[in-house]
Design brief:
This protein has 179 residues and is mostly helical. The chain contains 7 helices and no strands. Helix 2 crosses helix 3 and helix 5 packs across helix 7 (159-178). The chain is globular and about 55 Å long. The chain starts with 17 loop residues before the first helix and ends with a helix.
């Protein structure tokens, strides 16, 4: 049982390591956050994505080891993500097809095209470097557009396992692209 004054990432009296503490936090908070977001977004896929983003930001936070109430910090991250999402949606310009009548004013330069191609190669390499099962789950979700439940059914694994694979894949790909 986690005590409120235990710190994430710090060993507790029982010899837990930081990963176990994070896993406990994820097990306790992810379902609650998913339900809360699902009620606001009316989309379990969007709720799952925001929960994954929140935990990725939590992991990336340098101050997470000093938190007395990591749940409160996680709640703040989720609220901030909702605010960011709302701003993005309100500022989104309508989709305009690119054709002869709607050609972009400025064409991409050769340098832009080379940079984009390098980024694509690094992304493909990062995806290829994932363990086979994680890569399969990630591709089914992000490339083929399947929902977590569909992937779980197709592969005979739990939805939580699908969530973990997608979240871990995003973290690993992000790290590889930053290098």
């Amino acid at each position: 049982m986690r005590r409120p004054d235990d710190e994430i990432g710090q060993p507790s009296g029982g010899g837990d390591n930081g990963q176990l503490r994070f896993d406990d936090l994820y097990r306790e908070q992810a379902p609650r956050l998913r339900r809360w977001l699902d009620g606001r977004l009316r989309s379990s896929e969007d709720a799952n994505d925001l929960v994954q983003d929140a935990f990725a930001r939590f992991l990336g936070s340098g101050s997470r080891n000093d938190l007395r109430r990591p749940e409160a910090f996680l709640n703040r991250i989720v609220r901030n993500l909702l605010i960011d999402r709302s701003r993005r949606l309100s500022n989104r310009t309508p989709h305009v097809p690119i054709d002869e009548a709607n050609a972009p004013v400025a064409r991409a330069t050769q340098e832009d095209e080379l940079e984009l191609e390098q980024l694509r190669r690094r992304y493909r390499a990062a995806v290829e470097a994932l363990p086979p099962r994680m890569r399969e789950v990630f591709v089914l979700h992000r490339v083929e557009g399947l929902g977590y439940k569909e992937i779980a059914t197709r592969l005979g694994i739990s939805i939580r396992t699908v969530e973990w694979h997608v979240g871990e894949a995003l973290l690993r790909i992000g790290r590889d692209l930053e290098q």
